[in-house]
Amino acid sequence: MPTPKGDLWKYYYPGAKQNSSHYRAYCLGCINVHRPASAGSSVDPMEVDSDSNDQSLGLTEEWFNDALKNVKSVLGVKDSMIAHLIGKLSGKVAAAKDAATDGDDESDSGAPLKKRKRMRAVEKSFKQSELKVFKGIDIPFSDAQSKIIKTQFLRATISANLPFRWVINAEVVKLFLMFRSAATTVMPDRFALSGRLLNEESKRIADNVNAILKGRYVLLSTDGWKDNHKKSLTGVDACLDGKSHLIDVIESSGKPKDGESMCQAFFGMIDKAEAEYGCIVVGLCCDNDGGSHKGRDLMVERRPWLFGPPCCGHQGQLILVDYFKVNEDGAQTAEDTTDVLGWIVSHERVRAIFDGVQIDKTGAARSYLVANITRWTTHSIAFHRLMRLKAPLGAEKNKKAVKKMTDTASRFCDLLDDPAFWKNLQMVSEDIEPICYMTNINQSDHTRADQVLLGFAGVYLHFKRHSKPHISKGMTARIEKRWAALDQPMFVFCLILNPYERLERFGPRAGADAFTLSMALVELYRRVKSRPPPGILSEEEEIELQNNKKQKEAQVSKSFLQYLASTGPFASWVKTRKNFESVNGNNPILVWEQYLTNPDLYELADFAILLLGMVINQGGNERDFSDFKIKKTRLRNRLDTKKVGEMSKIGADIRASHKAEAGLFEEREKRQNHSDKRVKDLLAVPRYADALESDDEANSEAQPRQVLVKSKAGWQKVFLQWVMDAREMDGNSDDEEDAPVTPANDDWLPLPLAKLFGEDAPNPAHHRTRRPTFNREQLLMELLAAEHSDEAPDDGELSGSGDDFEE
């Protein structure tokens, strides 16, 4: 007995067999398009059953046979028949789409379907006959609606990180048809989604970024990344107003990385950014490895109006490496701590014992944190958590229970019971906490150069006061070396031009008098403003240009002296500072923007905004690469560089719009790794909490893969990698002659941190015998005795008796 045909054959005419099992299927709706007017009025193909004797379509007439030759058939299987019914073919009616999409309504096949008065009818799906779904409203879309919907399809695709082919998935199509039966008319295919729509949206965002950057001072940051195909990509970000904008993605596979090549690459990035976005590039920030380090030095040498700082977000990691080099006992303690934490986390029975004691003592069990090599600050957090669990871990009940397990457990229990271990861990935790705090601050998109300088000063003073002399001496020397490699005038004058700081942070040994500072500032101003004008100038124009520069330099010097003395236009700032800060916060750029309207102060205010607006880290590039890794996965590795960059720009714009619209973005609670009291005591130079409060990194949806360190061998491997990275970042900075030469006034800068922020050291007490006090009679007797002695007088001693002595 042949298998009965399915309900889909109500809408198809069976043709000849294509193979031994399947017939060719001809859509009755398509056939009805070819029905001539002479054949009578057409009927709804949804009301016709091709297997019945209903001849309303004229299945036996001559025009019908001709139509079969012109109509394209499909294979008589369910998938092909459904795809044809819901596709964009002429002649199909909404009922056929709904029936194919929503499934069989299980009505009598012999009776015609009754039309419902309601616009939405309940039917049963032929895939899941027990699931009741609703038909979509049959209302067509306008052209404006269609354009908006197609653009939204692209934004939804990128925001949810979906492949472009998701829009042609049959189940997705059916889902949208449930909402609206005309959905397929506005759903773009994957080629339109990844082509025209992507390009149009990318151009719109590029125009928005152009409007933001045009005519503004920006600092570029660049870094490299490799995808799953080992293709090297270089990202270029423009940092402005505490936000990084991805402006270019360059494929750099196989390109040379020597100093000269990197210098030319930097020039290309700068020139392209200024040409396309109309911005004024004031500097470029990148890694401090050999090629990049040399390339930056050449860039600053050939274009002295540019700044070339290394990424200050890496300085904390480098100082952390320095600490473990100087403190060998601390390095061993860090290895032991990591080993203990990994042992607890990896053994459920051990963890259950320790958790039980925690619950008995505190009522709750705290988790055991381990270091993550992708987040340098987690080492401090993990060590501090272990310190807080010292009492539960060292309980007698734990030792008796755990020692029954293995010799390894006994070794760790002995380590947890060793007071020397906890003493060393306490010291290591307290030493690396300010370093990690500085690292957190320097990675923020809102961190200014003056905050970086205060971070260096705070860590320096922490180790200056260290109780162990060898650690104090070794760390202060290494920190001084890293400070000496930076462009000191940029950092120092950024701090001085912060109206909330000025000269208050400098120590008595800095020698920062007003005239010295004024000359050094003019030197830095002259360097930044040495950018040549476009085109060739005549002799008269050149003379006029030089005179104009001299006038502006004199104006800057005079304004700066008034700023230091709090006179003239700056006199009111001393009185209104606290009130202004309470209302507007402590953003120094906002203060200087108020002086731009004063023509006498414009040059100084503009220069201060330039310095204070620079963010010298690669945080934006790191977030871009995390986003690249999410978009260009192992399964989507064929995405080209241009398309990855466009998708990342659109994704960043979507996240920004979600933050701007209320209710679309859930603000992540900021981590509180340090108590308020501890923050005040962490660094000798405070004001770091403000930078952390504006940190946007925690809101990034792109999180790197978590790589945890759970053993001593793992810690040693990670530390070795740190050392290698530090050497690579340092490049050739070990040689003093390779340190960048700062062009500022040599009479004052460069200066070590010890002089800038150090205090006057007390004179050491000389332990020598105090000379006895002689009265007049004793002195006369001594002279008389010397006169009658046979000893030769000492050098410089006068001969004579006591009678010659006069008071």
TrEMBL record:
Acidic residues biased stretches: 792-807
Species whose genome carries this gene: Mycena venus
Lineage: Eukaryota, Fungi, Dikarya, Basidiomycota, Agaricomycotina
UniProt name for this protein: DUF659 domain-containing protein
Region annotated Disordered, chain positions: 756-807
Top-rank taxon, per record: Eukaryota
InterPro entries per UniProt: RNaseH-like_sf
